[in-house]
Write a structure and sequence with these properties.
The protein is of the alpha+beta class and 209 residues long. The chain is built from four helices and six strands. Strands 1, 2, 3, 4, 5 and 6 form a six-stranded mixed sheet that branches. The C terminus is likely disordered.
Amino acid sequence: MNTSITLFTGMILLALTACSTQPAKQEAAETKVIPVPEKPVVTPEEALQQSGQNPDMTITKEGKKLNLVKIMDGGVCKNSLEGAKGEFLVYAYPADIERIKREKGAKIFADFENKIQALSTDALQHAVGNTNLSKDPFALGNDAEQHKLAQQLSENFHNAVAPALKAFKKETTLTIDVTAFPPSFIFYQQGCETATLEPENEGAENPVK
């Protein structure tokens, strides 16, 4: 199976420091890591205006109010025909951020950024691998098929990333959550290659959406 994967930072918010793009580790010989071009850091408000989407700026996890601190764009080609890309939201507990800054300094967050990107990349690869991206002959149009695929991929991503988030909190003492953003997903069923996963090629290669 020829699998291509990329995950790159779309924007950085508030407390976490911007990180340089790190290549995803190869989990199998056939996995091809896609180099990511440098992108300017923009504010969350600017990025949301550009995307036309409105993710929640806060969520509740374990009784804590987490703030949106980062949005990542990610994409995976499952094979030469099928793949998916979309946005993934990183939330963090602000009190943890301030405490860690006081105890360990702000530079520690550069390492946290790399860990978050790595675990998100792994989860995305597993999620796409476990999602049936084949054309549904019974789907009532592209919108219905898009919704079904988005929900399936979102659930698979949640299941894949949950254990890694627990391990991350235990190691760093920082409470975070990484969630898929279904409205941003684009699915490919008639051709997927590295170029289709880059944001500027959003309309290429016969996407479902």
